[in-house]
């Protein structure tokens, strides 16, 4: 399955430069999103991006970041939401993308859950078990990093490449012993499982992951004003969460909107939001994020993926694939 994803991205890349920007004269943009729990879902649900920019937005839902990256490579999607691992893999292979906003520094919103009754009481009990994870995702990276931390070789477990909906179904059938996943699948498997570790803990071990908004280079060059407006709206909704999110409950309108767009159980949303950091607009260009930390994290992730034989090469410098200019303009917009 991983090979199929790799070939699909490579094929898309081969046509990317010929296809050119998938831009419409009537100010229409296609944006790829995923089901992760984060505040921008509120702005998406309420149409804030359209109102602020004056653009028509075609929102396309994807199950994994690898799918988002493949669609952006082909030009079908101009702006996308993806995790650090598929992003690192994509830009290392030469995809014409730039990161312009860090949506989230992942914490407990992504977790490795073990099935009740699977006799997995400690990390070493994973040996010989079946673990499901979407390949080339942030959870895949975190799983491999966790196994390395526990001195468990990936060859000592069976790692299955399944998309989130497939993981939920496989869990229900009893086909897998553990899964490293995000919501809504996380909420479903956690009902009959136990969290063994989270991406917050894996971050503390030196392997951080993040979620980002990225744009095709051609779209960014042709329509910088749209990205500035997009960043401003995203920053505003992140600020709303930073200010009032502690009071958001399952019946709060904001939580209901996030749950509707992501397909999650509203009861799961507040805790998952608390498990993740959503940087404010004023924090984006700092040294830990777009000012340097993001490029470093992409380089570190790429080196890890190369060590795991997920990619063949590592770029000498990832800084050209990250820009702070969009958020800087949004602050003064």
From TrEMBL:
<protein>
    <submittedName>
        <fullName>Taurine-binding periplasmic protein</fullName>
    </submittedName>
</protein>
<dbReference type="InterPro" id="IPR010068">
    <property type="entry name" value="Peri-bd_TauA"/>
</dbReference>
<dbReference type="GO" id="GO:0022857">
    <property type="term" value="F:transmembrane transporter activity"/>
</dbReference>
<dbReference type="Pfam" id="PF04069">
    <property type="entry name" value="OpuAC"/>
</dbReference>
<keyword id="KW-0732">Signal</keyword>
<dbReference type="InterPro" id="IPR007210">
    <property type="entry name" value="ABC_Gly_betaine_transp_sub-bd"/>
</dbReference>
<dbReference type="GO" id="GO:0042918">
    <property type="term" value="P:alkanesulfonate transmembrane transport"/>
</dbReference>
<feature type="domain" description="Solute-binding protein family 3/N-terminal">
    <location>
        <begin position="28"/>
        <end position="245"/>
    </location>
</feature>
<dbReference type="InterPro" id="IPR001638">
    <property type="entry name" value="Solute-binding_3/MltF_N"/>
</dbReference>
<dbReference type="GO" id="GO:0043190">
    <property type="term" value="C:ATP-binding cassette (ABC) transporter complex"/>
</dbReference>
<dbReference type="GO" id="GO:0042597">
    <property type="term" value="C:periplasmic space"/>
</dbReference>
<feature type="signal peptide">
    <location>
        <begin position="1"/>
        <end position="24"/>
    </location>
</feature>
<comment type="similarity">
    <text>Belongs to the bacterial solute-binding protein SsuA/TauA family.</text>
</comment>
């Amino acid at each position: 399955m991983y090979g199929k994803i790799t070939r699909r991205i490579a094929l898309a890349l081969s046509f990317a430069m010929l296809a050119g920007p998938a831009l419409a004269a009537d100010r229409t943009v296609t944006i790829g999103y995923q089901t992760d729990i984060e505040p921008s879902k509120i702005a998406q649900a309420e149409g804030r991006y359209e109102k602020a920019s004056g653009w028509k937005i075609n929102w396309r839902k994807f199950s994994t970041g690898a799918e988002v990256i493949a669609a952006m490579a082909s030009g079908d999607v101009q702006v996308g939401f993806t995790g650090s691992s598929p992003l690192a893999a994509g830009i290392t292979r030469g995809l014409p993308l730039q990161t312009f906003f860090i949506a989230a520094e992942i914490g407990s919103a992504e977790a490795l859950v073990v099935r009740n009754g699977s006799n997995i009481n400690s990390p070493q009990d994973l040996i010989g078990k079946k673990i499901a994870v979407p390949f080339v995702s942030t959870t895949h990276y975190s799983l491999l990093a966790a196994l390395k931390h526990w001195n468990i070789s990936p060859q000592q477990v069976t790692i299955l490449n399944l998309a989130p909906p497939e993981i939920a179904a496989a869990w229900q059938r009893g086909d897998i012993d553990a899964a490293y996943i995000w919501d809504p699948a996380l909420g479903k498997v956690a009902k009959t499982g136990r969290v063994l570790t989270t991406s917050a803990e894996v971050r503390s071990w030196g392997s951080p992951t993040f979620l980002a908004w990225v744009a095709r280079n051609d779209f960014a060059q042709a329509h910088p004003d749209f990205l500035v407006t997009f960043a401003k709206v995203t920053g505003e909704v992140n600020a709303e969460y930073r200010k009032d999110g502690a009071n958001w409950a399952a019946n709060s309108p904001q939580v209901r909107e996030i749950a509707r767009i992501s397909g999650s159980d509203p009861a799961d949303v507040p805790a998952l939001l608390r498990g993740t950091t959503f940087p404010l607009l004023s924090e984006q260009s700092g040294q830990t994020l777009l000012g340097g930390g993001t490029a470093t994290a992409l380089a570190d992730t790429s080196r890890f993926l190369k060590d795991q034989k997920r990619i063949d090469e590592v770029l000498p410098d990832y800084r050209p694939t990250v820009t702070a200019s969009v958020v800087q303009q949004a602050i003064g917009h």
